[in-house]
C-alpha cells in the first residue's frame, strides 16, 4: 500500500458527505473515487471535494489500482453484498451502520473477513462519540457500573426522506438500522453480552411497509437492563437521547454532548482528538489499516448485535 490510503466512497448522500468532510481532516488519506446513483449529482460532489473519478457503479471503483479501501454509505439493503464485493476485490471496507439487514448476510461478511484478513468495520458511531467514550472510560476504570440505560430514538419521518430532507431511493428501518446503535452500545458499555431481548411494534405504515413505532427491552448477563423507544412519528425534539443510570451517577448523552443528571454540562473535549464521532470512527478505520489490526467496531465485534436483532425480528413476526 502507498503511504497515502486511497479511498473510494460509495453513496454521496447525507452520511456520505459527513464522511467526505471527515476524510478531509485526516492526514494521509485521499478520496480518489466517488460512487453514487445519479451521475450528475455525483460529479457535482466530486468537483466540490476534488475527487478525480466518479461513477454510478461500485465495480468501476473496485477495479481501480488507486483504491485501497472503501467506505459504504449506500442503502442498508446493499451493505453486506457490497462489503463482500470490496473484500473480494482486495479492498478494506467500512460499511455504515447496519452491517446487514439479515443475520445470514452479517455472518457472510464476517466469514469473508476472516478468510481475507482485510479490515472490515461497521459504522457503529456511538462507540466513538466523545460523550459515550467519556462514560466508557469511567466504566473501564471501575468508577461506574451501568444499572440501566433508557434510550429514545425519535424522528418525524412519514415519507422516504434522508437527513438532508432529500428523497431516499430506499426505506429506512427502526429495527435493523436505528435499534442497532443502541443494542450494540448497551452490550459494549455494560461490558456484558445481551442474554434477553423483547420487542413490540406499532402498526405497519400502509405505504412504507414498516412499523413506525417500536419498543425494545434488553438484559445483559451482568444484570444491567436497557429500555429503547423508537419512533418515526415523533414531531420533535428529534435525535437519540441516552440516559445512563449507574451505581455512582446518571449521565445523559446526545451525540457528542454529555450532561449529568442535574443537567450540568460535562466537558468531553479532551476525550479524543476530535469532537466529531464520524471523524473518530474514520480515524479508527484508517489506523487499523495502517497498523494491520482489528478495529474497534469490526464486523466480528458487532456481530452479536445482529444476532439480537435477528431474534427480535422473529419475535415481531410472530406477533403480526
Report on this model:
- The protein is an alpha/beta fold and 320 residues long.
- The chain folds into two domains: 5-125 and 277-298, Rossmann fold (3-Layer(aba) Sandwich); 129-271, Dihydrodipicolinate Reductase, domain 2.
- It is 36% helix and 24% strand.
- The protein contains nine helices and 13 strands.
- It has helices at residues 14-24, 39-49, 58-62, 79-88, 103-116, 130-140, 174-190, 277-291, 299-319, and strands at 5-10, 29-35, 53-55, 69-72, 92-96, 120-123, 146-154, 194-201, 213-220, 225-231, 239-246, 250-254, 257-260.
- The strands form two sheets. Strands 8-9-10-7-11-12-13 form a seven-stranded mixed sheet. Strands 3-2-1-4-5-6 form a six-stranded parallel sheet, with helices on both faces.
- Strand 1 (5-10), helix 1 and strand 2 (29-35) form a beta-alpha-beta unit.
- Helix 5 (103-116) packs antiparallel against helix 9 (299-319).
- The mean pLDDT is 94.
Amino acid at each position: 500500500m502507498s503511504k497515502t490510503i486511497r479511498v473510494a466512497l460509495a453513496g454521496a448522500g447525507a452520511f456520505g458527505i459527513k464522511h467526505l468532510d471527515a476524510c478531509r481532516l485526516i492526514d494521509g488519506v485521499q478520496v480518489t473515487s466517488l460512487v453514487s446513483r445519479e451521475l450528475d449529482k455525483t460529479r457535482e460532489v466530486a468537483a466540490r471535494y476534488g475527487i478525480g473519478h466518479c461513477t454510478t457503479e461500485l465495480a468501476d471503483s473496485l477495479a481501480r489500482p488507486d483504491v485501497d479501501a472503501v467506505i459504504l454509505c449506500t442503502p442498508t439493503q446493499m451493505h453486506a453484498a457490497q462489503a463482500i464485493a470490496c473484500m473480494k476485490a482486495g479492498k478494506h471496507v467500512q460499511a455504515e451502520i447496519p452491517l446487514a439487514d439479515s443475520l445470514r448476510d452479517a455472518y457472510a461478511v464476517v466469514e469473508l473477513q476472516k478468510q481475507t484478513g482485510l479490515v472490515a468495520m461497521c459504522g457503529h458511531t456511538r462507540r466513538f462519540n466523545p460523550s459515550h467514550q467519556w462514560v466508557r472510560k469511567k466504566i473501564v476504570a471501575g468508577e461506574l457500573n451501568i444499572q440501566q440505560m433508557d434510550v429514545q430514538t425519535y424522528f418525524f419521518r412519514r415519507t422516504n426522506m434522508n437527513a438532508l430532507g432529500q428523497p431516499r431511493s430506499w426505506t429506512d428501518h427502526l429495527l435493523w438500522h436505528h435499534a442497532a446503535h443502541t443494542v450494540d452500545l448497551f452490550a459494549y458499555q455494560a461490558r456484558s453480552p445481551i442474554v434477553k431481548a423483547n420487542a413490540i411494534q406499532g402498526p405497519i405504515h400502509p405505504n412504507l411497509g414498516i412499523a413506525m413505532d417500536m419498543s425494545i427491552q434488553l438484559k445483559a448477563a451482568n444484570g444491567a437492563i436497557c429500555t429503547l423507544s423508537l419512533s418515526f412519528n415523533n414531531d420533535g425534539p428529534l435525535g437519540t437521547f441516552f440516559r445512563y443510570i449507574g451505581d455512582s451517577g446518571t449521565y445523559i448523552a446526545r451525540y457528542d454532548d454529555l450532561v449529568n443528571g442535574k443537567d450540568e454540562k460535562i466537558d468531553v473535549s479532551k476525550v479524543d482528538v476530535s469532537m466529531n464521532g464520524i471523524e473518530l470512527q474514520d480515524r479508527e478505520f484508517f489506523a487499523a489499516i495502517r497498523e494491520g489490526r482489528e478495529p474497534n467496531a469490526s464486523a466480528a465485534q458487532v456481530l452479536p448485535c445482529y444476532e439480537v436483532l435477528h431474534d427480535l425480528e422473529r419475535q415481531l413476526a410472530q406477533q403480526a
